[in-house]
From TrEMBL:
Keywords: Pyridoxal phosphate. Gene3D superfamilies: Alanine racemase (3.20.20.10). It comes from Gordonia caeni. InterPro entries: Ala_racemase_N (IPR001608), PLP-binding_barrel (IPR029066), PyrdxlP_homeostasis (IPR011078). The lineage of its organism: Bacteria, Bacillati, Actinomycetota, Actinomycetes, Mycobacteriales. This is YggS family pyridoxal phosphate-dependent enzyme. Residues 19-241 form the Alanine racemase N-terminal domain. Belongs to the pyridoxal phosphate-binding protein YggS/PROSC family.
């Protein structure tokens, strides 16, 4: 026990989530560590990220700018020298590309040529200014049912979008695909289809090997269907707090 109950709570939940990932990898006959755990910290304050970095978490997902940028800046100030990465995983307006390119390792929700161009220009500026040192990673968000509420592009539109990302070599880096399965009903079938699309995509773009799929409710299914990065919020952070950070 420590004198910080929230830290204890996060420690227990993080351990439980890591165990779920490890069990799912084993059940799928996959190598330990082949599915990474990303902690989704949206809605929760910078202090929780500080606690989680202290507990060894090193990959985070955020979904709202400018709140995310402020939070990341605060954690970097509180923990100078700490090694962790933060991805933008929520839908992103073009006008916010500029600030996101300053803090995000990757944007997982790229689903239009316009957003790609905005991110390329923002990442180039950030690289020139020394605000980032590596190309901005891009995951194309796949939509399997064309449901605009979850965003994403259909499989037929992936090649053109991938080419557009590739045209910005050194500024953008094509890392793979991201998918959000429906919360109810056919998550399993959805994740299976996402794995098929990802295999076809990888045949064309071998470097873009990431398949970001699976959340609190379906991470086991996602790992069974080839996820390399599960994005877990509620199961680690708890329910959404009433006040915003
Ligand atoms: C919030 C969010 C998650 C985490 O969802 P939980 O069900 O809380 O684990 C994962 N991915 C995206 C894109 C999200 O917005």
């Amino acid at each position: 026990m420590s004198d910080d109950p929230r830290r204890d709570e996060l420690a227990a939940a993080l351990t439980a989530a890591r165990e779920r990932v490890a069990r799912a990898e084993a059940a799928a006959g996959r190598a330990p560590g082949s599915a990474r755990l990303m902690v989704v910290t949206k809605f929760f304050p910078a202090d929780d990220l500080v606690r989680l970095v202290g507990l060894g978490a090193d990959e985070f997902g955020e979904s709202r700018e400018p709140e995310a940028g402020r939070k990341v800046a605060q954690v970097r100030a509180d923990l100078p020298g700490a090694v962790f990465d933060v991805d933008m995983i929520g839908s992103l307006q073009r006008k916010k590309a500029k600030t996101v390119a300053r803090w995000a390792r990757r944007v997982q929700s790229v689903d239009s040529p316009e957003l790609t161009e905005a991110l390329a220009s923002a990442a180039a500026t950030a690289l020139d200014a020394g605000e980032r040192t590596a190309a901005l990673g891009v995951l194309l968000q796949l939509s399997l049912d064309g449901d605009p509420a979850r965003g994403g592009v259909v499989e037929a539109d992936l090649p053109a979008l991938a080419d557009r990302v590739a045209a910005h070599e050194g500024v953008l880096r094509l890392d793979g695909l991201m998918v959000i399965a429906p919360l109810h009903g056919e998550a399993d079938a959805h994740l299976a289809r996402a794995a098929e699309v990802a295999a076809r995509f990888r045949a064309e773009h071998p470097e873009a090997a990431e398949l970001s799929s699976g959340m609190s409710s379906d991470l086991e299914k996602a790992i069974a269907h080839g996820s390399t990065c599960v994005r877990v919020g509620t199961a680690i952070m708890g329910a959404r707090p009433i006040t915003s950070p």
